[in-house]
From TrEMBL:
Its cofactor is Mg(2+). Pathway: Cofactor biosynthesis; molybdopterin biosynthesis. It catalyses: adenylyl-molybdopterin + molybdate = Mo-molybdopterin + AMP + H(+). Belongs to the MoeA family. Transmembrane segments: none annotated. Keywords: Magnesium, Metal-binding, Molybdenum, Molybdenum cofactor biosynthesis, Transferase. InterPro entries: MoaB/Mog-like_dom_sf (IPR036425), MoaB/Mog_dom (IPR001453), MoeA-like (IPR038987), MoeA_C_domain_IV (IPR005111), MoeA_C_domain_IV_sf (IPR036688), MoeA_linker/N (IPR005110), MoeA_linker/N_sf (IPR036135). Catalyzes the insertion of molybdate into adenylated molybdopterin with the concomitant release of AMP. One of its GO terms (molecular function) is molybdopterin molybdotransferase activity. Its EC number is 2.10.1.1. GO terms for biological process: Mo-molybdopterin cofactor biosynthetic process. GO terms for cellular component: cytosol. This is Molybdopterin molybdenumtransferase.
Length: 450
């Protein structure tokens, strides 16, 4: 790995106001990200039904109102017994017990087990009073004088007997009341992301509703007069709008509710109207395209000077590749955060990963909005140069078993084919000017398995 002296660009000098000093007029990735994260807040909690809360972040500590399991129950199909009755039994000297009834999962009033007695019991059935262990059916002769489970009335008496070949320990195959979770304990704390097991736990303790941060609503707008909706006919000089789809999918993967708006032509006034119209349903707005220095960079034109629209959007150069031009600010009375991403498809996706995703995760209420990073050894052929002073995000394929990463495609920000075959971003630090196979680098793992 070759470096270029001091860590140029890895942290821009700051003024007393906390703002990045604009000597070089270039922001470090960290400063731009910090600026964004400082401006977004976790959304106000709401009460949601359990399945609607799936994928949201808990906004309350959940206390368990009942013990789990709520009663001692059997973990086996077998016989509820008094273990003292069976001491010393084996195949040569089986114990004989009278079977006085049957308990299934759901039985409300199990019969009492007296000395020399047993009750046939199914998994999940409440352990009858008097019994202190379960004998699995495999340790018995299967019983005689009683029929299959479904034909027997719970609570019926003395309709059979069973031979037992092996004695259980006291308490064996009984799941004691509260052994999963004790009543009154905190099952889940605020800040927990609700996945399937958490939904299950909440349901298991009887919660129908839960207080969570809602999913952020994201409006995605792509700009460019060249853009055609996929499915429509492509005229000369036109291209399909892919960014609004990539960004919508990425926002969805980040846990957002997404509203994708049809591509807006390069017309500043039209764009401003669209954005103003969208404010009503947005917690965050993402635009793509029109942020560099071209003659038709309308996002910059429309948002640098907002006219009578409240808000302020800054356009910056950020020390990264791809994704140098970035816009960030707030729009409307409600000060809705807006991130204006560059139009090149790889730039816009990488910018989403680096800036928008953490912002959305912060709004969702996650204590840590970042993806887990891993270190991996670079594979591939030959050294690759990296621009000095810029953090480079290369696309790669990660091998979690070998802990290696292999770049796919070049560094061109139009290379969507390679992006679609990547499952990781390889992070080349600002001061590194060349990377060589064998180098250890930070890798960000993406959602896409390839
Ligand atoms: P811009 O940032 O608007 O100058 O766009 C930079 C490059 O990205 C140009 O080649 C655009 O045609 C392309 N581009 C911009 N927006 C999109 C989009 N939504 N989908 C695909 N390519 C785009
Ligand atoms: Mg454009």
């Amino acid at each position: 790995m070759r470096t270029s002296g001091p860590t140029s660009g890895s942290g821009s000098p700051r003024t007393s106001t906390g703002r990045c000093e604009r000597l070089s007029d270039i922001w470090s990735v960290n400063d731009h990200l910090e600026d964004i994260l400082a401006a977004v807040r976790p959304l106000e909690p709401i009460e949601l039904q359990l399945l609607d809360a799936h994928g949201c972040v808990l906004a309350e500590d959940v206390t368990v109102p009942i013990a789990l399991p709520p009663f001692d129950n059997s973990s086996m199909d077998g016989y509820a017994v008094r273990s003292a009755d069976l001491r010393g039994c084996d195949h040569s000297a089986p114990a004989r017990l009278v079977v006085t009834g049957e308990v299934v999962a759901g039985t409300g009033d199990p019969p009492v087990v007296g000395p020399g007695q047993s009750v046939r019991i199914m998994t999940g059935g409440p352990v009858p009073q008097g019994a202190d262990a379960i004998v699995p059916v495999e340790w018995t002769d299967g019983g005689s004088g009683h029929g299959p489970a479904e034909t027997m009335a719970p609570g019926s008496v003395a309709y059979g007997q069973v031979q037992v070949f092996r004695a259980p320990e006291p308490g064996q195959y009984i799941r004691p009341r509260g052994s999963d979770i004790a009543a009154g304990s905190v099952a889940l704390t605020a800040g927990t992301l609700i996945g399937a097991p958490q939904v299950g736990l909440l349901a298991g303790i009887g919660r129908a509703f839960v207080r969570v941060r809602p999913r952020p609503r994201v409006v995605v707008v792509s700009t460019g007069s060249e853009l055609v909706r996929p499915g429509d006919e492509l005229g000369p000089g036109r291209i399909y709008d892919s960014n609004s789809f990539t960004l919508s999918a990425a926002a969805k993967e980040a846990g957002a509710v997404v509203y994708r708006v049809s591509a807006v032509a390069d017309d500043a006034r039209a764009l401003r109207t669209v954005l103003e119209d969208q404010l009503i349903r947005a917690d965050l707005i993402v635009t793509s395209g029109g942020v560099s220095v071209g003659a038709h960079d309308v996002v910059k034109e429309a948002l640098s000077n907002l006219g009578r629209t409240p808000g302020h959007v800054d356009f910056r150069r950020v020390a990264m590749q791809p994704g140098k031009p970035q816009g960030f600010g707030v729009l409307g009375e409600a000060r809705i955060p807006l991130l204006a991403l560059p139009g090149n498809p790889v730039s816009s996706y990488v910018s989403f990963e680096v800036f928008v995703r953490p912002a959305l995760r912060r709004m969702s209420g996650l204590p840590n909005p970042f993806r887990p990073g891993v270190r991996a050894t670079l594979e591939g052929d030959g050294p690759r140069s990296s621009p000095p002073g810029k953090r480079q995000f290369l696309r790669g394929v990660h091998d979690s078993y070998r802990r290696t990463v292999r770049p796919v495609g070049g560094s061109g920000s139009h290379l969507t084919g390679a992006l679609a075959h990547a499952d990781a971003l390889i992070v080349v630090p600002e001061h590194t000017t060349e990377i060589t196979p064998g180098d250890e680098l930070d890798v960000v793992l993406l959602d896409t398995p390839v």
